[in-house]
Amino acid sequence: MLGISVLILGWSTIRVRKAALRQISGSLDPGLSSGPGSYIDRKMGTVKSRPGQTHIRRIKGSAIIWKERCIPILGRHRSRIILLIILIMTLCGLSFSYLGVAVTGGFQYNIDHYIYTMVLLCLGLLWCVALSATSITAEKEARSWPILLTTAITDRHILLGKAYGTIRRCMIIWLFLIGHVLLFSVVGFINPLGLALMIMLVSGITIFFTGSGLYFSALCRHTTTAVIANFALAVCLWGIIPLLLSLSGGLVYYEHGYGLYMDVTNPFHQSSIIMEATTEHWWYFPRYGFSYLHFNWLALDADDWRRSTLTVFLTMFGYALTGLLFAYRARYRIRRNVF
User: Around Cβ 319, how many Cβ atoms within 10 Å?
Assistant: First the structure.
């Protein structure tokens, strides 16, 4: 592994040095795409238009949304290949793990679905938290943000376009979690209510971190700072505050402090309760529907499926409303710290 790391580091050093020399000399990067209506003149080092292909492309609706839709979900050029390889490896790993668990009959028990849900939820949150905080700072670092602000596009349309692009790119990782629940809902090992509850849970936290990412991205000048701030928010909500509430169990009644906070805010805790309820006695669904479901909340008196669905819906609504408030505050920050 050390030898491979040295080889990769040496190859990267050579590539970066060549790219830096090209930029210093003012020549074009041969890896840049010149677009469908143009080509790179290698001798002159300029971009020229092809005859008959110089028409102006007309667009309808928001220009920012159009721009975000033109950006490939998996990135451009080599980054797309790397992400495709990672996705293929992930799918192969999931397929082999599904096969191994299916052979042992593990999908009949809720512990296996609990593990898969926790892992996929953690991956989705990491992707969403990191990606949402790069929407504006990436343009600041590329020096294109001041140019965008000088156009006639309103601040609201800019934020809506950035939010659309973030949610669009986040959906690809959430498809693994939703796909897992959907697959085993169709097979019959998970009650279909579990799929609806997981969609509500994912929707709420996606809107929340999209709004917080826009706010921190507008507030900070560098991508690293914005990503760290967004991660700090998640750690504070789901790590530090529950830890303080659990340590103060002698001062505050445990169920009314820690238990209530976990029931209404923590997506990991909620997803574990959802999976436990919707995978236990799964064979009762054809006969009893949703009436047999029992949700073991720590403090809430919401054991039946109706009150539990209302609890998850209110959690989604609270996260979504807070995310919209973050985005609203970002509207007043995007024209500050422009450079």
Answer: 23
Phi-psi region at 77: left, alpha or beta (left = phi > 0; alpha = psi -120 to 50): left
Mapped onto helix, strand or coil, the DSSP state of residue 73 is: coil
| Burial call 211-248: b when 16+ CB within 10 Å, e when fewer | bbbbbbbbbbeebeebbebbbebbeebbeebbeebeee
Angle between helices 155-187 and 63-70 (to 10 degrees): 50
Q: What is this structure's pTM?
A: 0.75
Q: Which residue is associated with the tokens 């495709």?
A: 84
- Among the residues of the chain, which ranges form H helices? 2-25, 63-70, 77-104, 110-132, 137-141, 145-149, 155-187, 192-219, 223-235, 241-247, 254, 260-265, 267-279, 285-288, 305-331
List Cα–Cα distances, 156 to 26, 91, 297, 328, 333, in angstroms.
37, 38, 40, 9, 12
Compute the Cα dihedral for 154, 159, 162, 163 and give only its sign. negative
| Residue located via tokens 């009314």 | 256
Phi then psi for residue 41, to 5 deg, are: -85, 105
Average pLDDT, integer, range 210-234: 91
d(CA 311, CA 273): 12
- pLDDT given at position 315: 92
Residue that the structure tokens 């906070």 belong to:
261
Judged by average pLDDT, the poorest of 63-77, 165-179, 183-197, 219-233 is 63-77
d(CA 107, CA 181): 12
